[in-house]
Amino acid sequence: MENREICHCMGVTYADIETAMHSTEKFSDVLETFKHVQEVTSCSTGCGGCYNDILEVISEIMYA
Ligand code: FES
C-alpha cells in the first residue's frame, strides 16, 4: 500500500495516521479523530500546513 509522508515537519506518514486511528475505538467525527491522531503522532504541530491533508486522509480512512 502507498505510504506517503503527509506531515513533513513531524515525518508522519499515511500509515502512521492509520495506525493511530486503529489504536482506539472508532470516533464518528473527523475533527475528534484528528485530535487523537495528533496526540499520538504529533502531526500538524509544526507549520500547520498539512492540516487539510491530514483531515483528508482521516476522512478517506474513516469512510473507506
Ligand atoms: S507539514 Fe505538518 S506541521 Fe508542517
Description:
The structure is a single chain. The model has no long low-confidence stretch (mean pLDDT 93). A hairpin with a 4-residue loop joins β1 (5-7) and β2. The protein has a single domain, classed as Orthogonal Bundle (Arc Repressor Mutant, subunit A). It has a two-stranded antiparallel sheet with strand order 1-2. It is mainly alpha-helical. It is built from three helices and two strands, in the order ββααα. α1 (14-22) crosses α2 (30-41), α1 (14-22) packs across α3 and α2 (30-41) crosses α3. The structure holds FE2/S2 (inorganic) cluster (FES). FE2/S2 (inorganic) cluster (FES) binds at residues 7-10, 43-50. Residues 7-10, 43-50 line the site of FE2/S2 (inorganic) cluster (FES).
How would you briefly describe this protein structure?
The protein has 64 residues and is mostly helical. It has a single domain, classed as Arc Repressor Mutant, subunit A, CATH 1.10.10. The chain has helices spanning 14-22, 30-41, 51-62, and strands at 5-7, 12-13.
Q: Which strands sit side by side, in order, in the main sheet?
A: 1-2
- Beta-strand content: 5-15%
Which structural class do the helices and strands define? mainly alpha
Alpha-carbon distance between the two ends: 14 Å
- The dominant shape is globular
Q: Number of folding domains?
A: 1
Calculate the mean pLDDT score and round it: 93
| Helix share, percent | 40-55%
Bound molecules: FE2/S2 (inorganic) cluster
Q: Could you say what the CATH topology is called?
A: Arc Repressor Mutant, subunit A
Number of strands: 2
CATH class: Mainly Alpha
Task: Give the low-pLDDT segments.
Answer: none
Q: Supply the CATH architecture.
A: Orthogonal Bundle
As a whole number of angstroms, the C-alpha radius of gyration is 10 Å
Largest sheet: 2 strands, antiparallel
The SSE string, one letter per element, is: EEHHH
The total of helices stands at 3
